[in-house]
TrEMBL record:
<protein>
    <submittedName>
        <fullName>SDR family oxidoreductase</fullName>
        <ecNumber>1.1.1.-</ecNumber>
    </submittedName>
</protein>
<dbReference type="InterPro" id="IPR051687">
    <property type="entry name" value="Peroxisomal_Beta-Oxidation"/>
</dbReference>
<keyword id="KW-0560">Oxidoreductase</keyword>
<comment type="similarity">
    <text>Belongs to the short-chain dehydrogenases/reductases (SDR) family.</text>
</comment>
<dbReference type="InterPro" id="IPR057326">
    <property type="entry name" value="KR_dom"/>
</dbReference>
<dbReference type="GO" id="GO:0016491">
    <property type="term" value="F:oxidoreductase activity"/>
</dbReference>
<dbReference type="Pfam" id="PF00106">
    <property type="entry name" value="adh_short"/>
</dbReference>
<feature type="domain" description="Ketoreductase">
    <location>
        <begin position="7"/>
        <end position="203"/>
    </location>
</feature>
<dbReference type="InterPro" id="IPR036291">
    <property type="entry name" value="NAD(P)-bd_dom_sf"/>
</dbReference>
<dbReference type="InterPro" id="IPR002347">
    <property type="entry name" value="SDR_fam"/>
</dbReference>
<dbReference type="InterPro" id="IPR020904">
    <property type="entry name" value="Sc_DH/Rdtase_CS"/>
</dbReference>
Length: 290
């Protein structure tokens, strides 16, 4: 059994849905958990200390250890205070699961700059800020596990979610670079792109998905990725309904010529679009170009 005794985990947005499930699972397996949640509505408006406190109460009732933090991860002060809460309560931070998220869906032509920025602030800036606040502690300890929460909507695009898709693909870039930079200090970073029945999706998914796409079926992957035995880093996985799959950024073999003109590209478009074999790293990509 993969356990987390003596590990300290920060889970953001853990008052509801997926984050709550991650927090309960890690606590049940021995982790000391900081349950963060701003407690607002799905669009990020409002705030309440209730949801984080309720999850802490449940963990404590079940014999686990947890403290609540109702701060906003999208602000530097909120992120700093969250990491400080972990240090004050438990003395360190081993695990950060960046899960907090909001939705402000709107078709592209109608999206306002506030709707765009507001969504990026929680998902991208929030994940950056909380990880960065914890980073010096992880570096000093030579150990850290970070999971960022992307989405199939970001990896593959989705109508009405230009802001959300941008944010969720941004997290892939953040994860990949963090995986590279963290390597020499024992810090591993990965991203998940989940599907689960939560307040975020209950009006979008068919009712029969509720029993199959449980948050617990996502948390199992999160727990594996943040365990000390997992050395995987810089990877992205879709997870939902009991299935886990690697998602990768790939590049086709490409087509080249010494005389690259717009017309030459148009005339060789099928070769440009060819898919096999895949190129998986920036170095392979550069090699192919060279
Ligand atoms: P949820 O709405 O139940 O949970 C999100 C939590 O984040 C809420 O409790 C909310 O209060 C909290 N939160 C929002 N802004 C915050 C902030 N600034 N600071 C601290 N906490 C904040 O939704 P769900 O489904 O559990 O989503 C969790 C994560 O998974 C999100 O990042 C979401 O985008 C992502 N996701 C979920 C999918 C699904 O199928 N449920 C699909 C793809 C991605």
């Amino acid at each position: 059994m993969l356990r987390f005794d003596d590990r300290v985990a920060i889970i953001t947005g853990a008052g509801h849905g997926l984050g709550r499930s991650h927090a309960l699972l890690l606590a049940e397996r021995g982790a000391k958990v900081v349950v963060n949640d701003l407690g607002g509505a799905l669009d990020g408006t409002g705030a309440s200390a209730g949801p984080a406190a309720e999850v802490v109460e449940l963990i404590t009732k079940n014999g686990g250890q947890a403290v609540a933090n109702a701060g906003n991860v999208a602000t530097p002060e909120g992120a700093r205070a969250l990491v400080q809460a972990a240090v004050d309560a438990f003395g360190k931070v081993d695990i950060v699961v960046n899960n907090a998220g909001i939705l402000r869906d709107k078709s592209f032509g109608k999206m306002t700059v506030e709707e765009f920025d507001g969504v990026l602030a929680v998902h991208v800036r929030g994940s950056y800020l909380v990880s960065q606040a914890a980073y010096p502690l992880m570096k000093a300890a030579g150990y850290g596990r970070i999971v960022n929460t992307s989405s199939p909507a970001g990896l593959f695009g989705n109508f009405g979610q230009a802001n959300y898709s941008t944010a969720k693909m941004g997290l892939v870039g953040l994860t990949k670079t963090l995986g590279i930079e963290g390597a020499r200090n024992g810090i591993r970073a990965n991203a998940i792109a989940p599907v689960a029945w939560t307040r975020m999706t209950e009006s979008l998914l068919p009712a029969e998905f509720a029993a199959k796409f449980t948050p617990e079926r996502v948390s199992a992957l999160v727990a594996y990725l943040v365990h000390e035995s997992c050395e995987v880093s810089g990877e992205v996985f879709t997870v939902g309904g009991g299935r886990v799959a690697r998602v990768f950024v790939a590049e086709g073999p490409g087509w080249k010529t010494d005389d690259l003109t717009p017309e030459a590209i148009a005339g060789n478009w099928d070769a440009v679009m060819a898919e096999q074999p895949y190129v998986l790293t920036a170095a392979d990509s550069m090699k192919a170009m060279l």
